[in-house]
Structures are given as structure tokens and as C-alpha cells.
Amino acid sequence: MAGFTETPSWPSLSCEQSSAAAVSVSYSPFVVEMSYYTIAVQAYSMTRYVVENLRLDSAVVGTAMTYWHIFVSVHGLKKVDEIVLSAACTFLASKVEHHKVRLSDIVALVFEVDPVGGVMESWRDVVGQAELLLCYTLKFNFQVIHPVNRINELVFDGNKAVLECAQRLFLLSFVTPLCTRASAEEIVEALVYLAADGAERLEVYANGFNITSSERRDGIISVMLDALVAMRKTTKLPKIDNVISARRKRLREQESTRPSVACSSVGTASTDNTPCAPSVE
């Protein structure tokens, strides 16, 4: 298929010349401010923490973060505290993914409060109202498709390096708002493409890809690389990690030339005070 037979020369690109970096400027659906990841990483980390402690299926993470990004795409980052929203998304996702979880268990983990008492009840009310607003935002359409089997189909030979990298990238992709801007299959195929390219095995899997738009594929890859920079993550595939390092260096250089600004504590959850319930519209 055209667009998949030629391997992009990731390592030879400078941080100013990277084609993936150019995509993030040229194609608006795949432009994400780096500051977005600061908030999203907190929500993602909290979701993972709850899922792991309650021994829930990993699909809950993907479903919860999909809800989180959809909510933020509609209401922005200030409508509901990101950790309250994360708790509401995780609670709803756990039910959708067929787990029997009590809201009190999630609240106790997220806000570190005593399982009984007024503080617990206050946080339960806040999260419950956030969940109601979330349901309205989702228009009560809770289905989320996670085509993880598609990864195995594309990596048909079970190559360990490609498979592990693609699976890890897919899980980490839920830090990004890609789920609101591309189909699940597009995301999976782009991430497998990136992993295969990084492992120098792109030609092996070239015929399995269905995406016909190289621009959208490169846009998805660009967002994923920026997220890895923000999370300080690597892939253990030198070809990709060289690009991540170049982007990180470019970002540091850009930040060093910007005037300093006062930090804000907006959106930080605290159990010091009785919480205020979010408005439901």
C-alpha cells in the first residue's frame, strides 16, 4: 500500500526538522498543548492506582480515560477538579466493564479519607454528582471499544519487541486525547506502525495496515511522541527514543527562552476542606 512501503528516517531528523513535529503544527486535529498532559497524567496515574489496588481489569483504565478526555473536550479543564473527574470516570468505567465496585472504595483510595464519617459522605456526593454530569456529557453512551486484538493481528509473527512496544504505547495513549480525535483502529494501527518502524520491521507488517491517510497516521504518532516526552517515558527502541530525546531537548530550549510565569494551583484535589459539589447542567 502506498504510504507504508517507505520507512521514515526518524534517527536522521533534527529536532527542528522532524516530520512528525511538523505534523503537530500542520494538522490541527492533532495539536495538543504540552500543559494538557500535566493534568492528564495526574488523572491517568490516579486511575491506574485505583485499578491496580482494586484488582480491576486494565480495560477500566482505557474506558475511564476515554470518558475523562471526552468530558474535558466538552467542558474544559476547570469544570470539575481533574481528580474528582478521574474518580467519577473510574467508578463509571468499572461498572461498564462489569466490575462490582463500591463508590466508597474508590473515594477512600483517591482522597485517602476514613471509610466512615462526614468527610467520606461529602466526597461521595461530589463524585456522584460529577458522575451524573459525566453521564449527561456522554449522552448515556458508555460503550468504548478497545481493539487490542488488532495489535496481535498486525504483529502476526508475535515479534516480542514490536508487540510489547505497541501494547505499552496503546496503554499510554490514554494520557492523550487521541480517543476524541481518531478512531480506535486508527490509533492502534499508527502505534503498531511506530513500534514496527522503531524495531526496523516496518516492511514485514506493511500489508496489514488499513489506514490510507499518512497525514492522520503521522499526526497520531506526533501526539504519542509528545506524550512520551511529557511523561518522561522511553520505548527501549533506540530509533524512537532518539526522536523522543530530540523533542525533549527542543522543548527544554523553548522553555528556557520563555519568560517565567506564576504557578497556579487550580485543579488540585485536597481533602483538607469539605468539597463543593460541581454544578450539574
UniProtKB/TrEMBL annotation:
Residue ranges that the Swiss-Prot or TrEMBL entry lists as coiled coil:
none
- Write down the InterPro entries for this protein, in alphabetical order: Cyclin-like_sf, Cyclin/Ssn8
Composition bias, Polar residues? 257-281
Q: Write one Gene Ontology MF term.
A: cyclin-dependent protein serine/threonine kinase regulator activity
The ranges of region (Disordered) come to: 255-281
User: Membrane-crossing residues?
Assistant: none
The UniProt entry's GO biological process terms, in alphabetical order, are:
regulation of transcription by RNA polymerase II
- Protein name per UniProt: Cyclin 9
Q: Which species is this UniProt entry from?
A: Trypanosoma brucei equiperdum
